[in-house]
Amino acid sequence: MKKTLIAHSPDADDVFMYYAIKFGWVDMDGVKFENIAEDIQTLNEKALNGVYEIVAISFGLYPHIREDYALLRTAVSFGEGYGPKVIKKRGVKLKRNFKVALSGEHTTNAMLFRIAYPDARVTYMNFLEIEQAVLDEKVDAGVLIHESILTYNDELEVEREMWDIWQELAGDELPLPLGGMAISRSIPLNRAIEYEATLTKAVHVARDNKYKLSEMLLERDLVRIDAPTLDKYLELYANDNSIALSELQYRAINKLFEIGYKHGFYDTEVKAQDFMIPTEYKDLRNS
Fold first, then answer.
1. Residues with catalytic roles
2. Which of 125, 153, 170 lies at the terminal end of a domain, its last residue?
3. Range of the domain at 183
4. Structural domains counted in the chain
5. Domain closes at, from 136, 170, 204
6. Rounded-to-integer distance, Cα 203 and Cα 14, Å
7. Are 72 and 181 in a shared domain?
8. Mean pLDDT of 156-162
């Protein structure tokens, strides 16, 4: 039986979307799935180096790895009226060149932030350390991601919503593309199609069994938040729109890539649809 590693972040939406596989609710013939959880920038860096076959990434990274990875249509996270937050200590007025902590050079929020605040002095750190860094005044501000957007300290306040920055740059009412999945092009196409179908089923099953799965995650201390916060968080980032990319989501991803190219982050403009697994291949091959 082939062992296949799925690399994802330790935040609650990723854990929720992949644990239908971990708990044996979804499987794939001839494959034993294993998982590893690492922070999103570590995952982005390992994708740049081709370490994992199936890996969660920031959408903002994808154009850099397009030759080595295809995008998957499932297990996606978008902001819709919400997203990462630029936070600071209450009452602090930020200077033009304020020092800010971001969760990683290749994250979507880092690219958007750097476009919006070109004079800010950026430092990168693990997303779990950002809130405390602001509280300890090691930095003037930080961009919170994952569950931190719901649980940050009362001594902090929001300077700006990343959603607002996105809306200004996109110039359209599009969801904010945050995280997705990529699969190595070294995997045979038929097998890659099966992997995508299995992962899609896992997210679907997770959504259909949200309350039972959430209960199991909480009982096993697999998430860092309490039950009410988990319920709210999953409706933000692991909702029914996470199961399969929609046309609106494709438009949003393409707009993100367009913005990145326009501001010099990418060497070419990429269209997401050109880099998906061609699922029609299996039907054509068997016809």
1. 146
2. 170
3. 2-78+177-286
4. 2
5. 170
6. 10
7. yes
8. 97
Work out the average pLDDT over 111-136: 96
Residue 242 and residue 111 in one domain: no
Q: Does residue 73 sit in the same domain as residue 192?
A: yes
Which pLDDT value is given to residue 81? 93
User: Which CATH number belongs to the domain containing residue 154 in this structure?
Assistant: 3.40.190.10
Same domain, 184 and 253: yes
Q: Model confidence over 176-197: pLDDT tens digits?
A: 999 999 999 999 999 999 999 9
> So what's the pLDDT on residue 282?
60
